[in-house]
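Dig into these lines:

——
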Amino acid sequence: MILTFERGAGAGASGGSIWGKMKLGALALAVLVGVTGPGQGAELLFASGFEGEVRLAPQVDDLVPIVGRDSETGFAWPIDVLGARGSGLHLIAVDGGRAAGAALQRLRGHDGTMTRALYSYENYEARDDTQLPYEILDIRQGRRDLYVRFWIRLDRESLHQKDKWRTFFEWKTRGNGRGRGFRLISFIYTDGQGRPYWHFQGDRDPEHPIWEIDNFDIPVPEGKWFLNEFFWHWSEGRDGRALWRVNGRTVGDHRGPTTRNGQALDFIMLGQIYGDANPKHQWVDDIEIWDGWPPG
């Protein structure tokens, strides 16, 4: 069952290499949105599975940059899509690494072969905003379409705590901190019996959602890899769109405004570990970012 709520007048898997997985996911997405065939003009902006020279650099203030060139894709960190600058792992109230932290680890990937992935954990909330996202910061071309996909593996235990939540992807526009912007965020909620389900939301701040979509039909994978795809068309009008898919199935597909007051995208929080379901941990791998619908 999928439940969609609109609020306020302003609402308007496959194995193989990263390239093989890309083609299958992109083709399925093209079919979903009514695009026929390849060659839609989308450009691959970034792709990495953390291989080769990719590493965590020394911490600077509350940021840990990821640097180095991926030996399989040829793309280099940090991510600088849409003119972004200063991107890195943002350590927010992590209590010296005791509350939350991250590392690159080697483990078996979603295709059954050994891989390197970004491991993140949160043991407890040092403050109510304790979190550790990879932030693509200071975006300067924030009125453009974007498609993001990545694989993630979550622990089992945190997904069965009662009345809890966690998130691993969100973005915010400029003006969000002053109540004039917009936030897009994906959640996993648990109900009073500790059963997990998906929640997709656009809001002006956490207390004021503009639209919400609950999805109880798609099982939340536990302790195994699953593929996430996000696409959005930036708009204040009815042609706006925000789409989230898991393993090729649509969690939520919002049609309508994806910003407020003309505010452009400011930053993206990718592979975020955040929420009150603790302790928890996760791995993220094979990130791809395109500037539109990927070709089939």
Notes: The helical segments are 18-32. The longest helix spans residues 18-32. Residues 8-39 have pLDDT under 50 and may be disordered.
